[in-house]
Amino acid sequence: MSNPALWASVMIFASLHLSLLAQPLSKASVADIEQQLAPNAPNAPKTRSLNGTRNLVPEVRSIDLVIQFDLGSAKLQEDSKPLLDKLAQAMKGERLKEMKFKIEGHTDAKGSASFNDKLSLERAQTVVKFIHDKQITPERLVAEGKGFRELLMPDKPQAMENRRVRITTLP
Question: Would you say the pTM of this structure is higher than 0.90?
Answer without folding.
Answer: no
